[in-house]
Structure to design on (213 residues):
């Protein structure tokens, strides 16, 4: 999971700078220097030697990292979705932003319930890269916002779908696997929406009337 967000942040930075989808940035290659991958689960769902094996509701190191990053990502999507709804020139990007607030808000609630069930306390505070992107999007509006936000969110959802697929199949804890699997249909819908947004960007479009300075 460490590699997941190394790829994700690199993709977002590239997409924001170039207003191109992930594949155009060449960001889909595995991140280097991210450390060894988490141990693969055994057929019984327990971590293999070398990792922290869950006992009962105990959460392995890899699952804990995933849950933390999922919470950070959901909080980031909610916060920046509000910006999109308010600052985007494109009606489609505005609508997408509102969808992010609704769907990832529900995800946060589910994560909070899961954390309580597992007896863990995880922070959803944004990481430095998420804070930087939020700051960038707070300073722009209109077409400039669309052409920064839309490709970056597309890139992030590409890697999110892959990460949740991996967790749904390989998480050590059964509840974590179930959570990841339940999120996948929504994330795949988001990815389709984000992809469509890339084809209708006008970087010179004026800001919405209510937010023009």
């Amino acid at each position: 999971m460490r590699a997941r967000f190394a790829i994700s942040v690199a993709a977002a930075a590239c997409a924001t700078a170039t207003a191109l989808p992930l594949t155009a940035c060449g960001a889909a290659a595995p991140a280097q220097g991210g450390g060894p991958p988490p141990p693969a689960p055994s057929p019984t769902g327990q971590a293999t030697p070398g990792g922290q094996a869950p006992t009962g509701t105990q959460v392995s190191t890899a699952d804990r990292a995933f849950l933390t990053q999922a919470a950070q990502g959901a909080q980031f999507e909610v916060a920046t979705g509000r910006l999109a709804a308010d600052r985007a020139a494109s009606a489609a990007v505005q609508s997408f932003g509102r969808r992010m607030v609704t769907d990832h808000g529900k995800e946060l609630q589910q994560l909070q319930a899961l954390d309580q069930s597992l007896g863990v306390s995880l922070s959803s505070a944004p990481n430095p890269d998420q804070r930087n992107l939020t700051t960038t999007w707070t300073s722009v509006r209109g077409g400039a916002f669309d052409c920064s936000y839309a490709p970056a969110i597309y890139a992030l959802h590409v890697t999110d779908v892959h990460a949740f697929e991996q967790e749904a199949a390989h998480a050590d804890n059964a509840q974590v696997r179930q959570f990841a699997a339940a999120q996948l249909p929504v994330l795949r819908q988001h990815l389709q929406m984000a992809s469509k947004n890339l084809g209708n960007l006008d970087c010179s479009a004026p800001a919405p009337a209510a937010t023009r300075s």
User: Anything to note?
Assistant: Residues 1-7, 17-56 have pLDDT under 50 and may be disordered.
